[in-house]
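The instructor's notes for this session suggest beginning with a concrete chain rather than abstract definitions. Hand out the sequence below and ask the class to guess, before any prediction is shown, which regions might be ordered.
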Amino acid sequence: MTDQMRRPAEVEWASEIAALRADDGPRPEGWAMTPKAVVTYLLGGEAPDGSKISPKYIGSRRLMETAVATLATDRALLLLGVPGTAKSWVSEHLAAAIAGDSTMVIQCTAGTDENQIRYGWNYAQLLAHGPSQDALVPTPLYRAMQTGRLCRLEELTRMGSDVQDTLITVLSEKMLPVPELNSAVYAKRGFNVIATANNRDKGVNDLSAALKRRFNVVVLPLPDDMDEEVRIITKRVGEMAHSLDLPAPGDISAEVQKVVTIFREMRSGETLDGKAKIKTSSGNLSTAEAIAVMVGGLSQAAWFGEGGVGAEDLAPSILGAVIKDPVQDKVALEEYLETTLKKRRDFAGYYATLNELL
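After discussion, reveal the predicted structure:
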C-alpha cells in the first residue's frame, strides 16, 4: 500500500513492464522495449516469460500500432479525439512503456507561455551572475531532449498559436536554441513528443499548417459498440475503486449499462433502437464522464449507502454530467425522462430519482 493518491504508470505496472522488457527483439535506439512489446503492454497479451499482461486500452490494434510506429520515427505523434477518448491515458502508457518515464509532461493552458515550453530562469542566479547554465531552469521538454525520453504535451490546442509554434524548431531540427548562452541543446536518440488535442471544447486554438506537418495524427474514437464501452468502464471503475479503497460491489456491469444507455442516447440524439429522436445535452457524456459518474456513485454508496450501488447513488452524478447548460440541458433531460425513461421498467429508479433531483 502507498500513500500516493495516484502512481505513474511505470510504477503501477512495473512488473508487467519488466516482463515485457525481456523481449530481446530489435528495438529503436533509446527504447526500453520492442515496438511489438509496447503494443502488447497497451492491448494486453502474454510476456516472454508467460506472464499475463492486462489491457490498458480497449480499442483498435491498428491505431495503437500506428501510434507506436510513429514514435519510432523522427515524427511527433498527435492523439486527437473528443474529450473522454483516453488520449491522456494512452499518452501516459506509451511514455511509460517506451521510455520508462511518463512524468515529463506539460499541461497546456491559455496561460502557458514560451518559458514553460522551452526553458526558464532562476532569477536570483540570473541577477547575481548573469545568464549561465546554472541559472537555466529546464522544462520537461528540455529534459526529454537531454535524456532521450518522451515529452507529453497535454491539450496542445489549449495554448496560444504563437506559443505552439515554438515547437516547430524542436520537431523539425531536433534542437532547442538557447540564444542567451549562445548554445543549443540537441535531442538525444529516443526523444520524441506525444501531444493530445481535441476540437470540441471552447478556447481551442488551431495548429498552424507548419506545426501540423510535424505531427502524425492518430484519431481516437469513442467506442462504437456499447458492450465494448461497458467493458472499458467496468474495468476502469474497478481499478479506480481499488486505488481509492472503495469497496466496489461484485458486479456493477448492470448499472454501468444503464448509465451508458442514458449517455449514448443523449449524446447521439436518438434512442438506441433508432425509433425516437432525443434532444442532446451540451455535455460531452463521454466514456471518461461515465467512469467519473460510476466512481462518484461508488463513493456515495460506500459512505452513505448500504453496500450496493444503484440509481439513488448514481443519479446526482448523472445530473451533474448531463446538465452543463442550466436551461437548455435541463429541458432536454426533462423531456428525455418523460418520453423515454418513463416507459422502461428497469429504469424506474433513475426516472424517479432524477425527477426528484430536478
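Then share the key points. The CA atoms of residues 33 and 80 lie 25 Å apart. The chain has 17 helices and eleven strands.
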